[in-house]
Amino acid sequence: MAEEMEKMVNEPVSEAGRIIGKASATEREPNSSEKFFFWLAPEEIVNPFDIVEAEQMEGTRTFGLVTNIRQITDAPSHLSNFIASDFGSTATTPQTPRQGANVAEVSVLANHDPSEPKRYPMGIYMPVQNEAPVRFAEEQGIHVALGIDKMFEYEKEHREKITIPAGLIRMSNGTRVRVYLDKRYVLGPEGAHVNIAGISGLATKTSYALFLIQSILQTAGTKDIAVILLNVKQNDLLVIDRPRKGMKPEEHELWEFLGLRPKPFENVRYLLPWGKETQTTGLPNCFGEPPDQFLTYAYSLEDVIGNRLRPGPGLGLLIRVPDPWDTLGALIGEIQHGIMNQEPRWRSVTTWNSLLNGPPLMEKGVPQAVGEVRASSVGRFVRILRRVVRNRQSGVFVEQRAARRAANLGDEIRRIEGGQITVVDLAKLTDEERALVFGHIIQEVYGMYAEATVDERNDLPRRVIIFVDELNKYAPARRGEGESSILEYVLDIAARGRSLGVVLISAEQFMSEVHGQVIGNCATKVIGRSDSSELADAAYRFIAQDVKAHLTRLDKGELLLAHPIYRQPVKIEFPKPAYQFIGHEHLR
Predict the structure, then answer these.
(1) C-alpha atoms less than 13 angstroms from C-alpha of 288 in its C-beta half-sphere
(2) What is the DSSP string of 477-511?
(3) Residue 323 structural domain
(4) Do residues 463 and 516 share a domain?
């Protein structure tokens, strides 16, 4: 073996085809159709997530993802090594050096037959044979390993672009490989939705979500796609139409390497919430300076309840407390039905003040029974609603909304157009207000696409992408307190969005806190740096155990990408944003 290794190291071959080791099968650790081992030549460096190729039977090649590397020596125990160093002397060199080798464990991705015509089009999934030469895979081979080559074949045959740049793989030998997503599994109809999870501040979730949206718009076409972004942190997304100054040449090169143009978002409109001081200052309730052009939105009682022709989001989105007997639900139904149909006893209820302090709910400050709902339950409802729309509100709830000064959010969402980016700011809103706004957006979009006639569908963008951070607040894994009717809409969009044309790109710190049906319906999953306790949850069972260990030490800007086309999740990098990203100057 020593002679063979020396010959291999000294063999004058090109860097691309250089043999770095040979497959190794032992009695205790045999190679299989799913996994193989190979020893590394001295001085060779391989890291987890590298992709290698091994020579296989009949001239085919087997590609695999390195998941772990171990060093094996001829020492029967650690005690033997201790004794060999003069019983633990750190200054002594053992007289007989241990014989050892670095051994990599590889998860099989695919087998490829390079012959034309192919003799084995389905591949050969026999175990990689002992002593089979192993090399670093090149870009073309990595595309075969992941299944990306099938996308290229589809594009060539159908003359339709389906590849969406998603980042790049950087190998230990310096090779850079472009990675693509299949549009049919991102925007439908085969699959849809992207979920991004990871520790806050370290996983760069928002940056990757917006990079992916930019990539979709540049490759899948802007005319047919509308985008709705929910800004939940400071003013992160309120400057995405401004170019970032000081971009380095290597950042430009990385965007161009992926076939994309580094540019800010275009055709952006901003919807910012009304605040307590807006009436006098004219400024919206947002962090920092507002954008140059924006619309302000607010909620009167009529905006929340709506009318018979155009129902609103409903009071149910504001009542986020346990209601096991549906008492509050019945009262809300009674209120909304009475106001929407202008029943005699409800005609005087036109503002928040008249609802909370006047009949039929209240009489001289005393709660009144409504229908079959007792006065005590009415009193509880009034206390909860008063806390939300009066005592703790940020200013978004108004007695009367002046149409010239503040817009109805539902009306603005129904005006979305292909190629347009709509940013809705929630950063300074309370949790109940955020639930109302997000629920309103989801309801409007779902209604537009699920209930549209054939003629109406022709007037809508073919696809609408909704990006929301902190998804766990709106689709929690565990039912109970804090749950609202938003969950049902999110579940419906997750299940039917791929056929409706509604795509959800979501993010959260902990995937385990999101409803299982939402995660299960996300075709593409992206994981940033996470802690070991979180990775132990069943939500991450699609990731091999060895790979999970590496996720705890991902650097900022590195992500694990799982896509239906790929045989295994892969580690990727992506370029920094080309727009201003306030507060994230040190992205990585």
Answers:
(1) 13
(2) SS-STT--THHHHHHHHHHHHHHHTEEEEEEES-G
(3) 301-391
(4) yes
